[in-house]
């Protein structure tokens, strides 16, 4: 039996789209997290792995920029992934302060399981949508993300 769509709280009444986005993101993240746990990964680690699978040998700064997460989150994730044997970090030849990240064989072996996970998550997410609706959703989601990312942060009022 499918879960019912939660009632929008009255305080979110002026932002039904924003509340729907919140509910969607929460549901998607919960499902993805459960799938990642089956692969012994934490949420966000798959994003780092996918970046490294596309281009191994990136610096931590490059990874930070590509996934859009904060420094402490990326550093903690990379440390956990190194402890799990998925990658190694070593100083760059040109600057010993710069850390370069390389996948291990164990990390590279996650290419297909990750692709399978994203394919399954996509099938579940789009199950009740037509191909045209799914394409429109992706376009609209990126338009919304661009609008949010390009908006100026609210200014603090002067006292």
Give a structural overview:
This protein has seven helices and three strands, in the order ααβααββααα. It is mostly helical and 159 residues long. It has a three-stranded antiparallel beta sheet. The longest helix has 23 residues. The radius of gyration is 19 Å and the shape is globular. The chain starts with 15 loop residues before the first helix and ends in a 9-residue tail after the last helix.
Question: Got a strand count?
Answer: 3
Residues in β-strands, percent: 5-15%
What is the makeup of the main sheet?
3 strands, antiparallel
- Quickly count the helices: 7
> How would you sum up the global shape?
globular
Low-confidence stretches: none
Pattern of helices and strands: HHEHHEEHHH
Largest beta sheet: strand ordering? 1-3-2
| Average pLDDT number | 90
End-to-end Cα distance: 53 Å
Structural class: mainly alpha
Radius of gyration, whole Å: 19 Å
Helix content bin: 55-70%
